[in-house]
Amino acid sequence: MELHILLPFKIFLKISGVRRIVVATNAGSYGFLPQRLDCVAALVPGILMYETKEGNENYIAVDEGILTKRDKNVEISVRNAIAGANLGKLRDAVESQFVNLDEEEREVRKAVAKLESEFIQGIRKLHQS
Predict the structure, then answer these.
(1) pLDDT tens for residues 47-88?
(2) 33 near 23, Cβ under 8 Å?
(3) Which of 7, 23, 3, 6 is nearest to 15 (CA)?
(4) Residues 57-82, buried b or exposed e (16+ Cβ, 10 A)?
(5) Confidence label for 98 from pLDDT (cuts 50, 70 and 90)
(6) In whole angstroms, how far apart are CA 70 and each of 25, 60, 91?
(7) Spatial contact of 25 and 94, defined as CB atoms under 8 Å apart
(8) How do beta strands 65-70 and 46-52 pair?
(9) Closest C-alpha among 19, 47, 45 to residue 32
(10) Dihedral over Cα of 30, 25, 67, 60: its sign
(11) What is the phi-psi region of residue 125: left when phi exceeds 0, alpha when psi lies from -120 to 50, beta otherwise?
(12) The pTM is what?
């Protein structure tokens, strides 16, 4: 298979000769082999594993995103990714960087929703006057 990992601002990884891929989704972990049917999967923050044709296993911490498999091409689009061989450090990176970002993002979204609500209420008051 050919694996592409895409970030919003660059191509993180482009590799061919991949035997299998394992990713984390909100429904659990899924493995992808070359013969698997074409599909789309929503990814959650976690560890992505891929094995090369030489038998080397590689690990990448990925943020939430989407995976598409078409024929022998697998494209993964995520907000952020960190490569490394040490699984312990990658797991810590997932927990500290990606999960905390989601909490901060929720707080920002709450603040924006509040501002939007106050703005709409202000416009309504102007129209009623």
Answers:
(1) 899 999 999 999 998 988 999 999 999 999 998 898 876 777
(2) no
(3) 3
(4) ebbbbbbbbebebeeeebebbbebbb
(5) low
(6) 18, 21, 29
(7) no
(8) unpaired
(9) 19
(10) negative
(11) alpha
(12) 0.71
